[in-house]
Amino acid sequence: xxxxxxxxxxxxxxxxxxxx
Length: 20
Known about the structure:
mainly alpha; 20 residues; single chain
């Protein structure tokens, strides 16, 4: 797995949680 992908996924999840 790419570290960038993992970081991106985490950033996206944080954004979704913040939006919720």
